[in-house]
Amino acid sequence: MKDLNKKPSFQEFPDLHKTTMETTNVPVQTQDNMIPVDPFCKEDNPNKITFEDITLAAFKIKSGIVNTACTRSQMSHATGMELYLKKDFLQKTGSFKERGARYALLMLTEDQKRVGVISASLGNHALALCYHGSKLGIPVTVVMPVFAPIMKITACRQYGANVVVEGLDMGEAKRIALKQGQEKGLTYINGYDHPHIMAGQGTLGLEIVEQVKDVDAVVVPVGGGGLIAGVALAVKTLQPHVQIIGVESERCPSFTAARAAGHPVPTDIHSTLADGLAVPMVGYNAFATANSLIDKMVVVKEEWIAVSILKLVEHEKYIVEGAGATGLAAILAGQLDDLKGKRVVLLLCGGNIDTTILGRCLERGLVAEGRLLKFTVTISDRPGGISELCRMLASIGVSIKDIMHERAWIISDVFSVDIKVVCETRDSEHSEQLKEMLHQNYRNVTFGGVTLEPMMKLRSLNN
Ligand SMILES: Cc1ncc(COP(=O)(O)O)c(C=O)c1O
């Protein structure tokens, strides 16, 4: 890695030369029409980190970071893999981001530490920076876009950081942060592309190799690419035969797009359950470090992320955010079947999920698995019609969550009534049994919602 403390001054480029970082809806017109760029992350001169950077990071952050457990999963038998879960959601602020944040802070010069740092982030990087800034006595400013979760904004403030809530999206928040950094002499720390951040995240790879013998593959969620860059370099240096597999949500596949183009490119992104991965363009340094070390990239559907969050709650009792559950999503969706029979480590790298979103994910997961169903059935409006339907459902052990009947709006015949039911089944086979029974007994039955065709069924968990 280059000497990062040498002349870390900001440079200015005309707006025309604005880096393609983050697609933006509303470009910021700075007063002088100049937008500062991050001196640590340059398109024309990317900075690759080395294995030694990671070992130095491991030594430096050891006392301030939890060496989280990596244990065999309850889902090993069901998935047909020797599955190990690296539980970095158990760091103090709920994510692996603390590793890079602490290391980047520790590596500042005394002058830089005194003046402080600035960054733009939606959540995990901001939390990590604010927490370790408070521990190390380094002033931290974070710019969070206006839609950042209030819970995370409050938590950052509680760590005594200067939290600026500004910018309609991450691109705008970043430009504001770079500008403020330049004006106030603060060091800008990119959450995925700063070389010290990547080196810090790489310590996860060192721990995995030490904790699990004979690993065949490590599955890594990918946002801006800093995590996979560090982990891939650490693991491949120590054990070159281990496969490194990156996973993205279908709604923000920016690393996959960069691989196709041969360099980072702006990618359309949409709201996703894996909000931690919603980076429109991967980092130049991260891409340069990681690309040749990655064996495969996989893009997963949102529904499988919801199912994975549900499975982790049900079978492991872990609360993991969408980004952290993408590795399991790829496995459950059957996209990594070539790893069956192998020893696979999944990074459960974050647990910061809003309770309301968690509730929605659990429900979506149940729907996607075919365990929560909604249907409308037309039955006879004579006394006993509804009770007959309820008896039928009870006879096969289906539990009714909600039931409503509608009389006035149906147009067929006045002696009929539409019944809308939301019910819970044990699994997709049980749902099939229900569907068959309803079709046998009623002429008019329609089912709503999207059920995933389970490519892989979770079998007995008694392994
Ligand atoms: C929980 C979680 N997992 C994975 C990632 C991806 O890390 P990176 O942006 O370094 O690729 C992030 C990024 O914020 C995250 O918050």
TrEMBL record:
Enzymatic reactions: L-serine = D-serine; D-serine = pyruvate + NH4(+); L-serine = pyruvate + NH4(+)
Residue ranges of every copy of the Tryptophan synthase beta chain-like PALP domain listed in the record: 63-350
One GO MF term: ATP binding
Residues annotated as signal peptide: none
A GO biological-process term: L-serine catabolic process
EC number: 4.3.1.17, 4.3.1.18, 5.1.1.18
Chain intervals for the UniProt region annotation (Disordered): 1-20
Cofactor(s) for this UniProt protein: pyridoxal 5'-phosphate
Keywords from the UniProt entry: Lyase, Pyridoxal phosphate
Function: Catalyzes the synthesis of D-serine from L-serine. D-serine is a key coagonist with glutamate at NMDA receptors. Has dehydratase activity towards both L-serine and D-serine.
Similarity comment: Belongs to the serine/threonine dehydratase family.
Protein name: Serine racemase
Native source species: Cephus cinctus
